[in-house]
Design goal:
With 230 residues, the chain is an alpha/beta fold. The chain has eight helices and eight strands. The protein has an eight-stranded parallel β-sheet with strand order 1-8-7-6-5-4-3-2. It is globular. The protein starts with 8 loop residues before the first strand and ends with a helix. Bound molecules: D-xylitol-5-phosphate and zinc ion (ZN). The site of D-xylitol-5-phosphate has 22 residues, from strand 2, strand 8 and helix 7.
């Protein structure tokens, strides 16, 4: 099961970085210990805002050997898989709510040798993606409504992480569980109680990468030790 059951690691979301300096912001994240980088792709349709496309992933790919975790918040994700796969993304995650033929999109992502992730918004229950769980490499639980960084966490969504851990154990599945939205110093303890594998952080991380890694990274470290999650 790879790194499942180890302490969670942080994936900084570039959505909260300075868009005039993607290269140096990425370097800053990596210098502070980030091994995963989260790319929030928005199309102005599935969510109101527009961010960036595959060219950004491609241009940054040459500057990093980290894991590139692409979170597609777009309608018709099947039209984007090829370009993002070719841009050097490692994980491509799309939304259950964005397309009818989710299983086909998972297979499409895998056909490029990429890891496939499925995400659910706060109002989508886990049972809606149960048929996909044997096939995916990652499940991204949105703990805010997608579209913006800096929102307040909807804490009720965190029970989905526990639920997904249970289903993973029973089904002997291999997906990682990631949580995205509103993670900060005060919400982190609640997140840690559910033991996700990946914690995405936008504003809390980029407001102060060093401070984040010292304070929240330290909290994660200590919490992991406390519950002996190894
Ligand atoms: C929201 C994005 C998140 C966002 C998280 O739609 O998917 O990845 O960047 O930002 P924070 O951590 O500020 O909630
Ligand atoms: Zn995201």
């Amino acid at each position: 099961m790879g790194n499942i059951m180890q302490k969670p690691f942080v994936a900084p979301s570039l959505l909260s970085c300075d868009f005039s300096a993607f290269g140096s912001e990425l370097a800053k994240a990596e210098k502070n210990g980030a091994g995963w980088i989260h790319f929030d792709v928005m199309d102005g349709s599935f969510v109101p805002e527009i961010t960036f496309g595959a060219k950004l992933v491609k241009d940054l790919r040459g500057k990093s050997s980290g894991v590139f975790d692409v979170h597609l918040m777009v309608n018709h994700p099947e039209t984007q898989v090829k370009t993002f796969a070719e841009s050097g993304a490692d994980f491509i995650t799309f939304h259950k709510e964005s397309t009818v033929h989710c299983h086909r999109v998972v297979e499409q992502i895998k056909s490029y040798g990429k890891k496939a992730g499925i995400s659910i918004v706060p109002s989508t229950p886990v049972w809606e993606i149960e048929p996909l769980l044997p096939f995916v490499d990652l499940v991204l639980v949105m703990s805010v409504n997608p579209g913006y960084s800096g929102q307040k966490m909807i804490r009720e969504t965190l029970t989905k992480i526990t639920e997904l851990r249970g289903l993973r154990e029973v089904g002997e599945y291999g997906y990682l569980i990631s949580v995205d939205g509103g993670v900060n110093e005060s919400t982190l303890p609640f997140v840690m109680d559910t033991s996700p594998d990946v914690i995405v952080s936008g504003s809390a991380f980029f407001n102060s990468p060093e401070g984040f890694m010292k304070k929240l990274g330290g909290l994660i470290e200590n919490y992991g030790n406390k519950v002996q999650r190894h």
